[in-house]
Amino acid sequence: MNAPGTPLLEVDSLCVSIGGRAVVRDVSLDLHAGEILGLVGASGSGKSLTALGLMRLLPSAATVRGGIRLSGRALDSLSERDMQSIRGRQIGMVFQEPMTALNPVMRIGAQVAETVRLHGAASGAAAAELARQALEAVGLDGERGSPRKYPHELSGGQRQRVAIALATVLEPALLIADEPTTALDVRTQGGVLGLLKTLVRARGMGMILVSHDMAVIGEFTDRIAIMQDGQIVEEGVTGTALQQLRHPYARALLEAALPAPKHGRQHTKARAPCQGGAPKAAQAQSVTVDSSDTVPVLEARGLVREYPRSRRSLWHAPSVFRAVDQVSLVIHPGESVGLIGESGSGKSTLLKMLLALDRPQAGEVRLLGQPFGSARGPAARRMRRSIQAVFQDPYGSFDPQWTVERLIAEPLQLLETQPTAGERRRLVAAVLEQVGLAAADGARYSHEFSGGQRQRIAIARALITNPKVIACDEAVSALDVLVRAQILDLLSELGARLNMAYLFISHDIPVVRAIADRVYVMQQGRIVEEGYAPQVFEAPQHEYTRSLLAALPRFGDPPV
Known about the structure:
Elements: E1 9-18, E2 21-31, E3 36-40, H1 47-54, E4 62-70, E5 73-74, H2 80-86, E6 91-94, H3 98-101, H4 108-118, H5 124-137, H6 156-168, E7 174-178, H7 186-203, E8 206-211, H8 214-220, E9 223-228, E10 231-237, H9 238-243, H10 248-257, E11 298-308, E12 320-331, E13 336-340, H11 347-354, E14 362-367, E15 370-371, H12 377-384, E16 387-390, H13 394-397, H14 404-409, H15 421-434, H16 451-463, E17 469-473, H17 481-498, E18 501-506, H18 509-515, E19 518-523, E20 526-532, H19 533-538, H20 543-550
Helix pairs in contact: 4-5, 5-6, 6-7, 10-17, 15-16, 16-17
């Protein structure tokens, strides 16, 4: 038990070096019981290595110096065996991606109970009961959150709640949450962060919230420490510090956290309620486009996609789940259209049909005015050249054994006449330079690049066939705010210069607000609202849209 006023956690001049290179330099901080400290910075700033250093989970090649004390006990001098008893019981950790942190073949109740048993807190039925109580405490009760569920049967937000139950079942004194909501939609993010805050306040824990998102840090923390190049460059009480940032890097993070809303062009003769807009880079040269004389580059008409549910018994026919219900949308040349909605709203299912990767039970998709989903053979290949996609995780969609040149050139197989090796090399070099990389990068491999650079490679691969429309599926959600801003500016500039249209599918409302001319809002398989982006975001008409906007983190709200 800490004496009144004594910090729960004390870190004194923590330094971490890997391979002789300093990655964390002289980091000092303290944390009191019941307090939330935000550790914020862009990718490579050293924030995650600092958090892992506190738990002594760094690579074996790492060299660590400095003092770490938890409840007055020095952790830096403990053996690995002693640290194993600390982790889980006195320090809990919530990682960014619960699906990789959870065992896919174990029921969630068994996984939480395993933590209890490993630390000798209970066994058998008693451990199972503690697991049930921990899952119930994080909002997983009843049929949807049954301890007998497997991770794949849960939504992203529910899986993150399981990760929180794992980290808090033994009520540790210190909780470290490393980017716990990056991949979650805004309402689920608010629920998870609100749960963490409630647990910290109710149990008197201390928490370090590691994030690149200043908006999240601004709303949910008591104090803030901003890291750059392994050092803390700014710190203080959150509300006061954010209003008085002095370091240029800290101000850049703050500016990038909430991108400025876009105010694009409006079409003069729109056939749909809302048509058109200019990419961000073209705002200064706004012109009027008459969409009534323009063939849409992509159009969906009354799409329906259903899936059978699990059969309840041999005597009952399986019911049907309608993932997409009579959805129509239209995208015109050169405009950016946003599609927003929380997890499970049907966005991904709709995208599969728009890309002709799945067939609807009703409705049709038209690309450049022609039926797309039903096209076959050479006609399908010709059409497919006109639509490309950029996905959330380019590293997962790249073959690690292929060079960048081969990765980018892969869509060229859609061409009727295949280019020679020299022509292919010139085409790849040209698109690499278009996205801000060097032609020589074609000879390298994807693992040699940062996350932002890999996303530029993914964009280059999408550009290689000169498409008319690119679908961006959560294309920047895994990037830190500074890299995200760079990628959004790049996409806007390319769209303006090449007259490309974009479909931005995202749960990240600030991103869509920054780049989209028009917006569709999707809930439970239906489009519930559509319109010009400024109208939708500034004066939403549907209650669901208003609830999404209300869930956005707000600067200046004092933590409670």
